[in-house]
Amino acid sequence: MSTGPGAASVPAPTTAHESPPAHGVPEAPPDTTGPRTPDATAAAPAPLVLPGSPTPQPPGPTVLTPAEPRATAPTTSSDVSAPDSPAVTPEPAATTPGPPAAAPERAAVTPAPAAVTPEPPAPRERASMFRSLRVRNYRLFFVGQVVSNIGTWMQRIAQDWLVLSLTGSSTAVGVTMALQFLPMLLFGLYGGVLVDRFPKRRLLFLTQTAMAVTGLALAALTLSHQVQVWHVYVAAFAVGMATVVDNPARQSFVSEMVGPDQLQNAVSLNSANFQSARLVGPAVAGVLITTVGTGWAFLYNGLSFIAPIAGLLLMRTRELHPTRRAPRKKGQLREGLRYVAGRPELLWPIVLVGFIGTFGFNFPVWLSAYADDVFHTGAGSYSLFNTLMAVGSVAGALLAARRGTARLRVLIAGALAFGLLEIVAALAPTYWIFALFMVPLGMFGLTVNVTTNTAIQMATDPVMRGRVMALYMMVFLGGTPLGAPIAGWVTDAYGPRIGFVAGGVVSTVAAVTVGLVLIRSGGMRLSVGWQGRQPRLRFVPKRPTTERELVRT
Questions:
Q1: Rounded to an integer, what distance in angstroms lies between the CA atom of residue 103 and that of residue 95?
Q2: Helix axes 344-355, 408-426, angle to 10 degrees
Q3: What is the enclosing helix (H) or strand (E) of 527?
Q4: Where is the composition biased (Low complexity) (predicted)?
């Protein structure tokens, strides 16, 4: 018997399989409360009376005596539509002849208070740092990325070392990096258009296969001692072209695997995965390069793509959350740009990440200069600085995975803390103080990255997500080839401390400016007051929200 949501189950006067008593045939319900006085008038159940409707008169001169209190279910809409159902009719009490009184009418309108014990609320799911790994498809994806990310970091180290050993030129190493990142800067938006048009799982299968072939080709050329520097240039450019499609497809495919509820957690775990590989991959590559040569590092990277490809093939497509694909038509690139330009919650986070990525993430330039020119400690210190920053990045990713939502105020606060920490770290007087600052720098830098990624995906229409994520990745990664030479020039001309401070100042100013713009676009203002003896700062609406604005929101 359905008694409505949250109602306690109580014994019914009659079973659900019994037919209601026929009209005019006296039939009393089974006795469940004790001895009763039989009476033919008790066979007709009292009709339900809704508030505001005329009160029916009793069929005869009967007086209802209050029955023993019992637990009854509250009346629901289904109960009102079937007043003859014994499941919702109060149990008839013993009657005695006499003049009618007012009590029966009150009893008919308002049943006696029910001693119903409210059903306890469903227990809230405990927030788990790894809750998105309960999804089978994402678990396959995550394990494949663990293996592949280690290989990616190994190839980065081996590739730079191979070019340096072939040419002896740091400029050639820079050209290799530029060729790998240049395709994202030039063609990143077109990659987003492809991601919106075609199934993301199929695109990932193609891009992962292409990068595997590139790694195996470099391994074959290096192990056979036939490799030349132009081979490495071509391989770097090919990997960059695959990344144009792979990055937005991989970022937007996460939401299809886990859904919107687990998106923040899954994006954070992806970042923790990548940063953990950053700790392991270079170390393993260093061992292989010094013992057996760079060719074996390329071979491992090529074979490591078997794991993500197998994970994609083993996924259950019926458990995915597919999004509607964009139809093929002209002007989709301009449509994506207009879409972002018309939404401040998308535009300004991308602008903020663009400034921070271009001017605040030039750590290879600054950390190498600090290790060599400021503390005079050599390459070992440069490696230690990067390791401590990777530890902080992993911690930041896990903390972001613990949080359930991505808020723009967390993004602004993280970016502001990141810029201020860069300024303070740049002025650190001793080696170990500077080294310790690398941990919170890595943590807040990763917080900015993860929060922006999640907030943009959550605020974007699924049919536009590929183009929006491509723009985000283009701004975040494509700014490095532009900002690194500027940071290097400032560092060489004015010293490492001035260069590091300049990056922190740009990040801080960008965070404050974007924060004020978002506050203004959201119709908020800064309110300054006092709480006891302490000042209190908070953001409040400039004016009361009208009903039309509320509906629009």
A1: 13
A2: 10
A3: strand 524-531
A4: 30-52, 62-76, 86-96, 103-117
